[in-house]
Request: fold
Amino acid sequence: MSLRFKAIAENESFARSVVAAFCVPNNPTLEILNDIKTSVSEAVTNCIVHAYDGRKDGEIMIEAEIVHDRLTIRIIDYGKGILDIEKALSDFYTTNEQDERSGLGFTIMKSFMDSLEVESVWGAGTTVTMTKNLDA
Amino acid sequence: MVVKTKIKNNNLCIYLEGELDQSVAEKLRGDLDNYLERINVKNVVFDMEKLSFMDSTGIGLIMGRYKKLKARNIPIYITKPNIQIDKVLRVSGIYKIIPQI
Reply:
C-alpha cells in the first residue's frame, strides 16, 4: 500500500492508524502493533519537525508491504536531508533542544523494529526503511 | 487531548487523556507551564490511565516540565501508563529520574 499526505502534525495519528490497520489482517500481537504505531509516529514526526522544519507545504509518502508475515515499511520525505546520519541515529542527539526534542526518535525505531535503515540525499530528502516480523 | 487536574493534600495530579504526539505538544506545553507557574504544591503526578498513545515527543514534554519543577524543588511522578507508553518510557530511561508510582 502507499499513502501520501501533507507533512503536518495533525496527520500523525491518521498515518500510524493506517499502517496498523494494514497489518491487522496478519493477526499481530497488540505489542507488535504498538511497536509499529510508535515507530511510524517517530518517523513521521522527524519528517515534520526536521526534514521540513515545520513548513506546512511538505509531503510524506509511506509505502508498506507484507511478504510472508514480514512488514517492510518506507517513510519518505522530500525535505532537507540528514547531513550526519550516524550522529542522528545516536541516543539523545537532537538539533532542536529549545523545542524540547528528546533525541530518542531513532532510538525507539531501532529498539521497537527488527531493522532500521536510513538513506538521505542532502537537500532532497530522507527515506527510512523498517522491517518487523508480524508473527513473532 | 484533554487535561484534568486535582489537588489533594497539597499534591497536584495532572490527568492526561487522549493521544500525546507532536500535534498537541506545543499547546500542551504552554498550557501546563502557565498553570504550573501559578501553583505551589509538594508533588506533581502525571496520571496516564486515560492516555491511549504517546511517542518520544511526550518524553521531551515531560522532561521539560521536570526541569522546570526541579528548579523549584517540586518532584514529579508518573502513574498508570499503558503498555505502549510504558515501553516508550522504559526505553527513554526517564524512570531513573521520574519514578513510576
About this structure: The longest helix of chain A spans residues 30-51. Chain A has four helices and five strands. The mean pLDDT of chain A is 94. Chain A touches chain B through 26 residues (CB under 8 Å).
